[in-house]
Design a protein that fits this description.
The chain has about 120 residues and is mainly α. Among the domains are: about 30 residues; about 50 residues. The protein has 4 helices and no strands. It is rod-shaped.
Length: about 120
């Protein structure tokens, strides 16, 4: 009985040793930086750093665009105010000036071209 127990104990120890060796090899393959999961983690970490830098640049550009847009908006509001004043002042013009402009016929001035000028042009 003692021999069987010793045999089973030795078989269990041998099985545990084989299991530990297999796990050790899998762990070394898992953690290698070139081909294993460690490499994938390193690549993902580098990509996260690149994306963080790109996001910071985009945030800076958005801030600059926002400030530029605010300046342009305030300038447009000022111009709109001036246009409103001009339109309001147009309503104050007398009606007779506008009627006279409509009654006038356009005049055309024609000039004769001399033969010397046409021969010089040819």
């Amino acid at each position: 009985m003692a021999i069987i127990a010793d045999f089973l104990l030795a078989a269990g120890a041998f099985g545990a040793a084989v299991y530990c060796i297999v796990l050790s090899r899998r762990l070394t393959r898992f953690s290698t930086l070139e081909s294993g999961m460690g490499g994938a983690i390193a690549v993902l970490s580098a990509q996260v750093d690149d994306m963080t830098r790109a996001l910071e640049k985009a945030g800076g550009a958005a801030t600059a665009s926002s400030s530029s847009l605010e300046g342009l908006t305030s300038r447009a509001e000022q111009v709109a105010g001036r246009l409103e004043l001009l339109l309001a002042s147009m309503h104050d013009l007398p009606e007779s000036v506008a009627a006279e402009d409509e009654q006038r016929k356009p005049r055309f001035v024609r000039r004769r071209v001399s033969r010397a000028e046409t021969e010089a042009a040819e």
